[in-house]
Design goal:
single chain; alpha/beta; 4-stranded antiparallel beta sheet; two-stranded parallel ribbon; 14 strands; about 10% strand; binds glutamic acid
Amino acid sequence: MERKVRVRFAPSPTGPLHIGGVRTALYNYIFARQNGGDMILRIEDTDSQRFVPGAEEYINEALQWLGIGIDEGVKEGGNYGPYKQSERRDIYREHVKMLLDNGKAYIAFDTPEELENARKEIPNFQYDSSTRGKMTNSLTLPAEEVERRIAAGDKYVVRIKIEPGRDVTVNDLIRGKVVINSSILDDKVLYKSADDLPTYHLANIVDDHLMEVSHVIRGEEWLPSAPLHVLLYEAFGWTDTMPQFVHLPLLLKPVGNGKLSKRDGDKLGFPVFPLDWKDPKTGEISSGYREKGYLPEAVVNFLALLGWNPGDDTEVMNIDELIRKFSFEHCSKSGAKFDYKKGIWFNHEYLMAKPDEELADLIMPLLESRGITGFSREYVAKAAGMVKGRSNLIGDLLEQGDFFFTAPTEYAEKDVRKRWSEDMPRIMEELIGVLEGIEDMSSANAEKIVLDWIAGKGYHLGNVMNAFRLAVVGSCRGPHMFDITELMPKEEVINRIRRAIDTINR
Ligand code: GLU
């Protein structure tokens, strides 16, 4: 019987969500939407040692910024809650007992020193079928002794009892059948009495089962845990409803070999986090895509293609197209190089495609934060439209278009030397007169009148136009001059020319 698609993103709140985690969340979301399924956000916070305050809020905010919608979760609610593992202790306790009762797990009292000794005495020690008979556990101690120790409050763990010599098969939708022999696995700890909490493995399997998860889509770093997970499903007798596994390819460094790390980002100047993050302990800030000026749609598109392709060379795809085209068959097994320059390229493409009014909405708050106010949305939109071709990140729009909002206070030295010849102040005075006489400042009209004047006077076209630009923009850059002067109030243009005449010294 076909099961309803139910997927989960299950981050541990141990710090800011890494961009690889964001990609995992995105693939889960896309797959859920494609199949009319449910997307669960489960907070896996059973490792109290590694808990970081603020991390859960960060995860929520990042997913929201990117438009990765959650159907069931801590905030959203749902019929399978609680969605935070630290609130499910009773459930795990009950399930640990099930495994103890059916003999698939056992209690172990070994102290850290005992384990250390075993490691010293037994070469390549691992806690498994070959060594468990020599250790202090419920398989070697008399039952009364086990009970006595528990009653006395001795610390213990519960370990899975792995039978050796069996081939364990993990069916993975990207990797096919992955078979490993159970003899290489150790009797992993499932529960610790010290904090009355399960380990990741137990909690993860119990919750996937109870939450009726159909597909476990997660990073490749979890593949080594998958055989143990398969054995846990067996131990509980849940093999019929075991989810389909999907292990996504690793994100690799942009240059060189190995896993993408925060250091790569610091070195090459790109973020590896979706949002800025301030470490609550050290105060250190790690930069995020949002604050760097990326559009969420661009980040989504960029991430979607890290490990998947649509089967042709289409690159720019919005979320609806991604949902339509996505398939695990076109996911790669091998790692995906994190080509951050491609991310910048995507952002440029999405800036270009965005209506100018929406660009204005993005940059007006930035202008305001710099104390620049009083410009209409329409004005800002037109300015943004003129400079977006040269912009990659949102902030570039402001940098490229700064002169639309603030008059230059200095003039590029090189351009002054090259263009502001001795007779330029006089010519610019004349230009002011010409501009004053133009009624219709629309680009084509003003251009014709000014160029006719230049030609009539026999002036050097390039020199005069560049001096004009220098006065208005502050340097010889920017969009078409008469587009600029069409948008700017004429008095402002004239004031700027006047200021240039008064202040430029050669
Ligand atoms: N809590 C694990 C993590 O932090 C979940 C791994 C999984 O999806 O099974 O990624």
